[in-house]
Amino acid sequence: MLQLLWSALNVALLIYFIVICFRATKLLRENLGLFASILFVLGLLSFIGQSGKGNTVQNEIVKQGFVAQDHLDPASIKSITLTLEESLGNSTNLRIHYGKDSTGKMVPINAFSNRNGFVSGLEWVPQIILVKTTPDNTDFIYKIVGILRWKLLGSTVYSQTKRYEKAE
Question: For the whole prediction, is pTM greater than 0.85?
């Protein structure tokens, strides 16, 4: 519920910011002229267009327990999506791609973790994904560690470590 309220707050602040920008443009046009207001709008658009470029760090995810796809029967490759956490309006999921080796045992090929739904103002950054099969070869055991970043208008306000685990 808190995550849904945080997302709604982000949307409300964004709408309010857009209203303020329109009012500022109107004031600039009235006080300084059309050229100043056009320059202001172009300046804002250039900042918005550049906000996600150049300052992002490539996230390195540590993945363990996976087998190369070329060692498996191509016809046996499948995927499964597991819900790790579900709250009102959004969920955190784990998608596992797996196949069968020459002995018929299920082996994980790759895994991805993401958030779905209304996630404005929340950024999920998985850092460690460990997946292996159970001893009876019927299910998967996993451990995911990551950071949930709570953002307000694009700036991180709080970083929360999250851990999801399904043990044997």
Answer: no
